[in-house]
Hints:
By secondary structure, this protein is mainly α. The chain is 27% helix and 6% strand.
Amino acid sequence: MKRDRTIGLEPRDGFDVGRDPQSMSADELEQLGHARVSPLRALRLKCLDCCNGSAQEVRLCRAVDCPGWPFRMGSSPWRRMLDQEERAALLARLAPNDASEPTTARKTGGEIDTSPSDGVRVPGDAPAKSSLTERGDDAGSVA
């Protein structure tokens, strides 16, 4: 299916230029082939695109002057690691409260389907490592 790229363009001074994505609807963005992803995931996907889909090449990337280079592994190097006490306090705060209204997953014991209903998939879509878990040498690799 060929995408209609014109919905992402607008005329300005006799030339077509890209529209401001914040002025576009989610439906228009999806028609252009964009999926809802976090900014870190978008950077990771761009790195994979630049490295021809090879996660190993992203890991070995030597383009250290690239603005996305520090984020190429799918995590922020600027976020500090939590110590054990902070991690435990955060997990306790985020733990579901049994007195609260049960979610659909807790009511049925099943999983909530988070896949897009329109079939849009993000290449290499894998669950990201939580920053609450201990990281190994791969430091939050997503692919």
